């Protein structure tokens, strides 16, 4: 704190020197002395405390504390913030800018961290086209160019998106070859159709399907599996809305588990007009009173239902009226 370093009782005699930050001072204070000092400077020898400028009346010959400030002390002493061995952040804390800054302030040169989790998105389907005009029976890739934003919103690192043909050999190669990802998010191939080969390929690779299906719309055909090498496979429905809705509700749980992080879930009141037997993931808009309104009239074939939407809401089974739901903000 900018002010005067002082020794003894007031009033004090001002010295001509100025003590600045960044170096050692040769000034030595005797009782009754005061010297101008800058924020961050080391207290000179003999000084007992620092009184900030706004608490002082200063003339050429005398430094006097203003009424009520005779005992003020703005010295920052070594060890007053924390001591050796102090816990500054619990395990599982996200390494935020505040965590990094605190580590630097505490002279902690390195941190033991987990993550970030690396996610590779794989688009399956011979009908998916990423560029050029569409032929009959083809459909545009409407997930690959945008999925990285949703992956990052889940707290993971998004790797390059790749395409997978609908052949058993190609799907088997996905799990047998080298991979730099911790999570493989496969879009499509999770159902029981003629070209859906993901489940059988996981079994042939020795993986364990932990979650086979979910009673939820959209996303009922989703799966979560673990391969022998520890990689996680997320099987996402092929429709864009269903794929993104499933990704942003399931991937955060995988990230939290892998990084031993405390789950952070937001809840809100959603106005739900009709009940359903299973859970639902719906796009919602924020209302001025802090509640949420369900969007209607959009299917799962595109993301048009998310244009301008603030979040997804996970509506519990049989819920109707003003319902407390998990809210998943959109990036």
From TrEMBL:
Example of a GO biological process term: Mo-molybdopterin cofactor biosynthetic process
A GO cellular-component term linked to this record: cytosol
Origin superkingdom: Bacteria
Residues of the MoaB/Mog domain: 120-257
Reactions it catalyzes: adenylyl-molybdopterin + molybdate = Mo-molybdopterin + AMP + H(+)
Cofactors: Mg(2+)
Keywords: Magnesium, Metal-binding, Molybdenum, Molybdenum cofactor biosynthesis, Transferase
SMART domains on file: MoCF_biosynth
Pathway membership: Cofactor biosynthesis; molybdopterin biosynthesis
GO MF entry, a single one: metal ion binding
Family: Belongs to the MoeA family.
PANTHER family per the UniProt record, alphabetical: GEPHYRIN (PTHR10192:SF5), MOLYBDOPTERIN BIOSYNTHESIS PROTEIN (PTHR10192)
Role of this protein: Catalyzes the insertion of molybdate into adenylated molybdopterin with the concomitant release of AMP.
Identification of the protein by name: Molybdopterin molybdenumtransferase
Organism listed in the record: Rhodococcus rhodnii LMG 5362
């Amino acid at each position: 704190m900018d002010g005067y370093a002082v020794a003894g009782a007031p009033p004090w005699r001002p010295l001509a020197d100025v003590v600045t930050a960044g170096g050692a001072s040769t000034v030595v204070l005797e009782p009754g002395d005061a010297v101008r000092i800058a924020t961050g400077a080391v207290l000179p020898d003999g000084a007992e405390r620092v009184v900030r400028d706004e608490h002082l009346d200063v003339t050429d010959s005398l430094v006097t504390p203003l009424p009520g400030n005779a005992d003020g002390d703005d010295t920052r002493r070594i060890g007053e913030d924390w001591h050796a061995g102090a816990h500054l952040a619990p395990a599982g804390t996200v390494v935020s800018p505040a965590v990094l800054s605190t580590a630097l302030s505490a002279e902690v040169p390195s941190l033991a961290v987990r993550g970030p989790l690396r996610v590779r998105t794989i688009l399956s389907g011979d009908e998916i086209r990423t560029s050029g005009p569409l032929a009959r029976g083809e459909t545009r890739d409407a997930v690959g160019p945008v999925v990285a934003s949703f992956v990052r919103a889940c707290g993971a690192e998004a790797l390059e998106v790749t395409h997978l043909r609908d052949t058993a050999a190609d799907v088997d190669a996905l799990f047998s070859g080298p991979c730099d990802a911790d999570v493989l998010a496969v879009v499509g191939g999770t159902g029981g159709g003629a070209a859906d080969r993901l489940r059988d390929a996981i079994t042939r690779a020795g993986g364990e399907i932990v979650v086979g299906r979910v009673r939820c719309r959209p996303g009922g055909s989703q799966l979560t599996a673990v391969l022998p090498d520890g990689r996680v496979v997320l099987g996402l429905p092929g429709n864009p809305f269903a794929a993104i809705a499933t990704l942003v509700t399931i991937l955060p749980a995988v990230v939290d588990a892998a990084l031993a992080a405390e789950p952070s879930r937001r809840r809100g009141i959603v106005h739900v007009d009709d009940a359903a037997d299973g859970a639902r993931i719906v796009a919602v808009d924020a209302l001025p009173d802090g509640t949420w309104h369900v969007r209607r009239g959009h299917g799962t074939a595109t993301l048009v239902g998310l244009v301008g939407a603030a979040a997804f809401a996970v509506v519990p089974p049989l819920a109707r009226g003003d319902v407390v739901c998990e809210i998943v903000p959109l990036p």
